[in-house]
């Protein structure tokens, strides 16, 4: 396989694995966060505003990990620097 | 719901006070502008042919850099320059580089988080338009509006939390 095909293959497979593995861990973390927030909401409904706000902030923190992986996979697919380099070299 | 129907300044002020800042009026301009800008940028997605400005990394980076500079400005204004700088050497001096890196990385995280969330909505809409253009893009667009509103709230809350951490004296 030539270099262009190899780079395209590795980029696409890595993008897929990035999304796959990178969404597992945030999903587990968000599930745990929401379940414990629900438990404390059931125990203390009075503190619902504080718990909800902290939950949202924490979820945003956790979710940003998944978003990083998404951005990386988008870069690998649409704005791959190695791909652009090889294509520009092949044009000569 | 009173935040949605009444004067937005009142709702934002109460939220800032809830997070722990004593005088929310001082921070209302900055945080309120950030919140309303990101919220409107997301909610205008119901207009046809609209590209959200927060779907570009340049816009979100600019917003995050605003937060990056607002934190020391508010912190120094509130506590003085020496106690503010001392905050970086807490709890021990060898934490200094880590504190500086955490300041930089949270700015990057602010920018990438908003950008990624808004951009993913556009990308999903584009992909769905080519795969199942009949009904599903509407569902994803409405989910996108919700995500945009939540992200605007989170951006403003995180900016407030960072400012609160910088302005609060740790001697309490």
| Shape label of chain A | rod-shaped
Q: Average pLDDT value of chain A?
A: 88
Proportion in helices of chain B: over 70%
Tell me how many strands of chain A there are. Answer: 0
Kindly estimate the percentage of residues of chain B that lie in beta strands according to DSSP. Answer: under 5%
Strand count, sense and closure of the main sheet of chain B?
none
User: What value does the Rg of chain B take, in angstroms?
Assistant: 19 Å
How many strands in all of chain B?
0
Portion of residues in beta strands of chain A equals: under 5%
How would you sum up the global shape of chain B?
A: elongated
Secondary-structure content class of chain B: mainly alpha
Helix content of chain A: over 70%
For this structure, the quaternary state is heterodimer
Low-confidence stretches of chain A: none
Write a structural description.
The complex is a heterodimer of chains A (about 90) and B (about 170). By secondary structure, chain A is mostly helical. Chain A has one domain: F1FO ATP Synthase (Up-down Bundle). Chain A has helices spanning about 5-45, 50-80, 80-90. Chain A is rod-shaped and about 70 Å long. Chain B has about 170 residues and is mostly helical. Chain B has one domain (about 1-165). Chain B has helices at about 1-5, 10-20, 25-45, 55-80, 80-85, 95-130, 135-165. Chain B starts with a helix and ends in a 5-residue tail after the last helix. Chains A and B meet through helix 2 of A and helix 2, helix 6 and helix 7 of B.
């Amino acid at each position: 396989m030539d270099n262009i095909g190899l780079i395209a293959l590795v980029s696409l497979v890595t993008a897929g694995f990035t999304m796959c593995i990178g969404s597992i861990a945030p999903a587990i973390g968000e599930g745990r966060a929401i379940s414990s927030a629900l438990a404390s909401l059931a125990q203390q409904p009075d503190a619902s505003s504080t718990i909800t706000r902290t939950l949202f902030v924490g979820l945003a923190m956790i979710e940003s990990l998944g978003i990083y992986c998404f951005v990386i996979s988008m870069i690998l697919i649409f704005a791959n620097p190695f791909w652009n380099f090889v294509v520009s070299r092949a044009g000569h | 719901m009173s935040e949605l129907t009444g004067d937005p300044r009142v709702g934002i002020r109460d939220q800032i006070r809830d997070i722990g800042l004593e005088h929310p009026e001082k921070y209302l301009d900055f945080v309120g502008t950030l919140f309303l800008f990101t919220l409107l940028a997301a909610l205008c997605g119901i207009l046809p042919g609209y590209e959200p400005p927060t779907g570009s990394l340049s816009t979100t980076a600019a917003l995050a850099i605003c937060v990056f500079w607002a934190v020391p400005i508010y912190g120094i204004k509130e506590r003085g320059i020496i106690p503010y700088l001392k905050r970086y050497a807490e709890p021990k001096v060898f934490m200094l580089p880590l504190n500086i890196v955490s300041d930089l990385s949270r700015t990057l995280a602010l920018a990438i988080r908003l950008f990624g969330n808004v951009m993913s909505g556009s990308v999903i809409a584009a992909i769905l338009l080519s795969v199942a253009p009949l009904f599903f893009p509407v569902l994803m667009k409405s989910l996108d509006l919700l995500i945009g509103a939540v992200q605007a709230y989170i951006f403003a809350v995180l900016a407030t939390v960072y400012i609160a951490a910088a302005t609060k004296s740790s001697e309490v």
